[in-house]
Structure formats: C-alpha cells, structure tokens
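Blackboard transcription, Thursday session:
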Amino acid sequence: MLIEFLQSRMFPAARGVIINNHTLSGAEIRRLVDILGRIFDFVAHEDLARRIDRGGRRPFCLLTFDDGFRSNAAETAPELLRLGVPAVFYVTTSFLDTGRPLWFVRHKALQELGPLPETLSSAVLKQLPLERTETLLDRFIAARGIDLVPREHWQAMTWDEARGLATRGFTIGAHAVEHSILPRETFAVAEGSIRESMAAVSRHTGVRCATFAFPNGNYTAALCRVATACGAATVMTTEPSWVRNGAQTWRLPRIQLFPSQSRRKICLKLAAALYDGLLANPDGTGRAYRRMEALRSRPRPDVSSLQTVRRQQS
Amino acid sequence: MSLRVAALISGEPGPAELWTLHALAAEPVEMIVVRAERPTGIPARKRLERLRREIGAVRLISRIVGNRVFGSWDARVRDRQLELLFDGEELRSWWRASGIRVVRSPFLNHDATREALVEYRADLVVRVSGGVLLRKVFSAARIATLNIHHGIAPRVRGMWSIPWGLIENRPDWIGGTVHVIDEGIDTGDVLWRGAPQIAAGDTGTTLFFRTHLEAVRALAGIVREYARGARPGVTAIPDSEESVYRTAPEFGDWLQYLTAARGRNCAAVLRTGVEC
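(Written on the board underneath:)
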C-alpha cells in the first residue's frame, strides 16, 4: 500500500524496479514473487525499454540474478518458469568455463573458518585488481594448507545449463570474465573483460548478448560505453533506486534483496529506494550516486578558466 | 654482465617504496640500495628562510600550519590505508630477508651518495623516494636516472599532483609518469605515462595506490628493456600540452581536499560516473 501510494502520488516518474539477487532456493523465490507480485508487473528484459518509456498500469519489476551459480539453473529458474516470471541471469564467463570458485566465494569460505588478517578484509580486497586479490588469497590458503571445497549451491552452472535457460525464454547477460571489480583494473583489462564476456555469452547461448551487469556494481561511464558498443541494450549497476522515466539504459539502477529479509523490510527498502540518496549503494560508494546525478545536469566547467597561476613556474 | 641498478631511498622505506624495490629486485639485474638518512642536508632554518623569500611569510605560515594541522593527520590515515593495500608486513618480511646490499649516506645529495653510485658503477639509478636530486647525483648513472612521478608529467609537475588534480578538477593530471631525471623538476624525457581509471568512491589514496601499481609495472618493464641492451622509446609530448608546477599544499588547499572527503566528493571523481 505504502509503495503504491508513494509511487503514484509522489513519484509518478518512477516506472519500476530492477531487483538484484544471487542465489535463491525454490521456496525463497516463491516468497519473493509473492511479495513483489502484489505491487509490480513482472517484465522480461525485452520489455524493459518500452516500460521505462511508457510505464504501465502498475510499476514493473525485472528480476536479475548475478554470477551464474548452479542453483540459478537447478532451483531458481524452474520455479520462475512454473510461476511464469521472466528473469535475467548474468553469468561470469570464466566461472562457467572452468568452474574455479569466484574470489569472493573463496573469501567467504575463508571467513567462515576463522578471523582473517585485515589485509584480507572485503574493504581492502575490493580496492585491488583481481590478480592481486587472487595472489593474496592463494598465498593465505597455501600458507595454512586449507583445502577449500565449494558448497553445492556456490558452484557454477554449465554452459549447457545457461543455453537451456536461454531456450526456455530467460535472458542471459554478461557479468565480466572473472568477476573483477572493473574500475580497479586498467582500462584495457576492463574493456577486454566486457568484450570477451559478452562475446562468450553470445557464442555459447546462440543469442546475441544484449545486457551487461557490473560485478559488485562498480562502474564508470567509459566502461558503460564499452558495453553498449559491444551491443548491450542495457547496463546494470547497483545504485539502489527505482528506474525513472527517461532513465539512461546504459546505467540502470538495481535494488539488492536478500532471502533473509522479511516482507516488511523488503517493502520498506523498496519505498526508501523511491527517494534518491536514502539508501547506500552496496558497491562501497555510499550515496555518491545522488551527487553524480546532480552533476550530470550541470555542464562541465571550462577547466582553462579554472587554471590558477599561483605557484606556477616556467 | 648484468645491468647494475642502484635504488635511492630516503629514510625507512614505506610500503609504496618497498613495492618498487620488490619489483626492481625481481628483474634480471644486480641491485643495491643507497639509503639517505634524511632527504636534505640544508638546515631547517635556512630552508624556511629561503621559502619565506620565495613565497612570502603569510603563505609560508599557511603552509606550515596546514601541514601541521591537516597534513600529519592525513598522512596517518593514508599510511594506514597504504599499509593494508600494499600489504606492508609482507613487504617488510621480504625486505629483511632480501639480502640486498644497503649503502648509507647522510642525505640524498651528499657526496657519499655520488661516491656510492660511482663505486658501484651503476648503469641505472632509480629514485625511489626523497627530494630533488642534484646533477652530481643523477649524472652518476652510466645510462640514466629514472623517477616515478605520481601525476601526468609534464602536464603537472611537482609534489601532491594527484590531490591537486582532484581539487582543481583536472582528471587529466591524475596518473603516473616514468621519466628520466634532468635538471628540472619532472621535466625529463618521458618513458611511460598512464592513468588509473577513476570511479566513484575513489580518493587521493586509492588513486595513488593504483597509479603506483601501474607505474611500477611500467618501470620494471623499462629496466628489463635496458637489461636486454635496448633503449626504451621516449614518449612524444605535444608542444600544445600545457605544463604547470604545483608544490606543497597550504592551509586552504588542505581544507578543500579534506572537506571533499580526500577527493571522494570532487567533480573529477563524480563526473567519471556520468560522463566521459
């Protein structure tokens, strides 16, 4: 009720939400669809642009699942199919190629074994290029002789399963090659990861990859443009807000929901997301997205006019 | 015979300097470290007097107060962050066990530094930390003396270039340069320059960190080329490219930098998310 009231009376430009999940069991997806289905129309990726432009009787909701875990294909997708709810699955392509656990899965598994040194905290690792992160984790695992066996639901789906999802009507998007936090890499590496992952999705599924989601949500406008140049009609971030009329499809917000959240918490979060800047972006940049939006409408000043001559030497 | 590289440092090496030394030591070269006990031999009073003549008493006081009030505070935060990002403990363990010969000198431009370089017959000298080198020191290298400048030289020269780029809204100043040291400040031949991606959430420290990773990788590549007997190419700088010099921040500059959350709220950072 609260969301419908706020959206229709105070935020009519808010067209709908894009939900970001990772792994959900059959029961969890049923519950989530039940909660969201009371407020939103579930839409497929192909209908997104139209719904952003023209809206609808009710706000829309697009479900997305990141990373390409096996449980997405084994549990989530069959339940969604049964419920008639479309979704997008963003796959980390090397994860599907090799099955090697993603760095944050290994990190999480290490955290469960005991406290880690501060140099291996999430905050530090998320500032590093992937090569360095993997080196630090490998060194720590080797030094302590730990044998990490990933749990069933943390394992990767196969390309056959991804192809199966595509043939059953789901959209498969790219989520980089190795789940590196792309702005931490050099531009060339990040660009290569976007191009390669989108090409791999197209090649393996036989359907042209039309959407890209940034790992951890961290992005730059230059990288968004790489994705659109590679054929992405939509590019996903994790800015926690609603999609508004006139939203840039190369930088779409997504709201993260977790299975542990109660119905009330989910509704409150969705209501809070109507107000730009109320929720912090889980990518670690806090509420910078609000300031960025404010800057977007202001033209860039001519830097030469800002040039100060103080302390200038020949 | 392998290339002889001498790395110049001033004082106890921090994590960023150790990262550079670690990368150089991994190259197929012979290496020593010349360690100056302090950056300069000029007495503090004389330096202050010279600065007062150059910039005036008011700006000198502003600079001193700024550095005392904000600079030391920022340095503590920054050092702690760089310690974690570079994994300083690991690097110090490596340094202690490395067995790299360390020659001591009272200060960087002391005759003892030159003597150490001449005696070692250094082919390459790499200034890893410390202040401006005099000709008598940088000319002691048979081939060249190299430096990493944290800023895009010669567009911006001098110290604190990345924070200057942030507070003056000049993302094109943010990056790193590997150059040959000559008489000027960051004016020598440019062998490499590159820039990290700037993204929302970045600060002067995170940009420094990623710049340093890239610049050290480039420096190691350049040293490898010299070791192979090749000469790395010099990057052509367009004549039209402006060049400005920036030096130590004053009170107002510190205030501007810190109130912008060390660059996190600067337009140079925020705009990269919405335009390019």
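Lecturer's comment: Chain B has a mean pLDDT of 95.
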